[in-house]
Amino acid sequence: MLIVNKCFGSVGAVSAEANCGRLEERLLFTKNPSTEPTEYPWIGLLVQREDLNQKFESAECNVAIVGESDVLTTASCVRRLNNRPELVAVRLGIWDEKDEPGQQYICNDRGFCVPGPVQYLVDAITMHPLADKDTGTNDIAILRLSQRINMTAYIQPVCLLPTLEPASWTSVDFHYGGFHQSDIKKGKGSAIAISRQYCKYETGTPPPENQFCGYPPFRDAFFKGAAMMGINVEDDVPRSFYLVGLLVRYVDVGSFMIVFQDIKPVRHWIIDNIKSTSS
C-alpha cells in the first residue's frame, strides 16, 4: 500500500498530507552540525559485502526512505553490485554510523538511550534507465527492500511531492542531511542552490543534466545520497520536508560546492517504480 497525495492525484508517492517528512520548526535554526536522533528519520546508511559469507560494512553512502519498502540512493553507489542485490543492505533508524543492528537500545554515559539500527536486506536494485556513469547524469537508483519497513519515531519516510514548488531552485536555501566523513553521527547542513552559469564559473565545468550545485557555508564532506530537502508550508507554518535532491559529489577547487541530483525531473519515474513494486 502506498499513500495518495490529494493535490496531485497520484498513487504511489509519499505525500505532504501523509505521515512523512517529519519536521520540528525549532530544529530548523539550530547550529548543531549533528542531528537529534529523531531528526531526518528517513536517512539511513547503505552497507555492502563482497560475498554472502562476509559481514556487511559501510558503503559510505546514504539512503532515503520514500515508500513502505523502498529507499533511494545514487546509482553510482550501487552500480558495481547492480546485479547482486543480495550483497547490499540498508541500516535504518541509525544515528551513529558505528552502531550495529541487533542492539535493542544504545545508551551513552549519561543514560540517554535510543533504539539500535534495523538492517534490511535489498531485494532488487533499479537504476534510472538513463543513468550515465561517464557524465554522471541521472545518478539515482531505487532499492526495493526484502520486507516492509517497520515505521517508528526513528524510521519514517520523506515526502516526495511538494504542496507548492518553485519553477527554479536558484537562490533557494535548502536543508540537507546524512552521514559524512567528519563525524560518526548523522549530520545536517544547509546550502544555497546556485545557477549553472555560476557553478561553471566556480568549478570550471557545469553540472550534468538533471543536476544542480549548492553552496554550503561549511566544508563538510557528506557521503553520496545525502538528502536535500525543501519545506512544505501550510497556513504560514512549516509542516514537512519533501525531497529535492540527492548529493552525488562535491567539488573543492578553491570554492567548495556540492552537486545534487535533481529529484524534480525524475520524480514520476520514482513514483511509477514504487507503485509497480507495491502492486
UniProtKB/TrEMBL annotation:
Gene Ontology biological process terms from the UniProt entry: proteolysis
A family per Pfam: Trypsin
Domain Peptidase S1: 10-275
Positions in coiled-coil regions: none
Keywords: Disulfide bond
InterPro entries: Peptidase_S1_PA, Peptidase_S1_PA_chymotrypsin, Ser/Thr_Proteases_Immune/Dev, Trypsin_dom
Domain of life: Eukaryota
The keyword Ubl conjugation appears for this protein: no
GO MF term list: serine-type endopeptidase activity
Family label: Belongs to the peptidase S1 family. CLIP subfamily.
Protein name as catalogued: Peptidase S1 domain-containing protein
